[in-house]
Design goal:
The protein is mainly α and 197 residues long. It is built from eight helices and two strands, in the order H-H-H-H-E-E-H-H-H-H.
């Protein structure tokens, strides 16, 4: 369409046509791929992959549980600090530095608590990052992406998934359970129907 529009502009400029006919053409919207959605059985299989018998496995299980329980973005997860999580809610800072409180189910809270109690020492700063890398620094988006890819492969999931897949699956599963679309879009009621209590 761009080539045709430029061509008609050229024809008018050269005097071949009297008017630019391309102005009557509708430009189609760019088609967007719908993200992959994991079935609940696939989610369960994915969440069984991290083994909580070492620090990285416990951390990764907590990350996967928390992402699926809340539908938060990977950047929001990476930005979480220790005191952003309570027994029922997580405080996230989203786009435009807007803060919101998201309810969290018991399984996600239990996974995070296990990680903190068994693998994060008292030497950690009081309000440091919630999830850390092997070197003790705040975890980054690339690390989360790589871990999700690795666990998906171990689970035998052939779909091309990413951290956003968990967010999209979370929203889809809430819709399937009867949650209101407008509330999901506000992304502030993640546990309204608590997918993983």
């Amino acid at each position: 369409m761009i080539a045709i529009k430029v061509f008609f502009r050229f024809l008018k400029k050269e005097g071949v046509v009297n008017s630019d006919l391309a102005c009557y053409f509708e430009t189609p919207k760019i088609w967007q791929l719908v993200p992959e959605v994991l079935q609940i059985e696939e989610i369960d299989c994915l969440l069984r992959q991290p083994k909580a018998d070492d620090a990285l496995g416990a951390r990764d299980l907590a990350i996967l549980e928390l992402m699926y329980a809340t539908g938060m973005r990977v950047s929001e997860l990476c930005g979480l600090n220790l005191n952003d999580l309570s027994d029922t809610f997580v405080k996230v800072r989203g786009k435009g530095a807007k803060e919101r409180m998201i309810p969290v189910g018991k399984k996600a809270i239990a996974a995070v608590d296990f990680y903190l109690i068994h693998y994060r020492g008292e030497s950690d700063v009081e309000n440091g990052p919630l999830f850390v890398s092997r070197t003790g620094k705040r975890i980054d988006r690339l690390t989360v992406w790589k871990q999700i890819k690795m666990y998906a492969k171990k689970a035998g999931i052939t779909k091309d998934i990413s951290p956003h897949t968990l967010r999209h699956s979370f929203a889809t599963h809430l819709l399937e359970k009867g949650a209101d679309l407008r509330l999901i879009q506000r992304s502030s009621m993640a546990s309204l129907c608590s997918i993983r209590k």
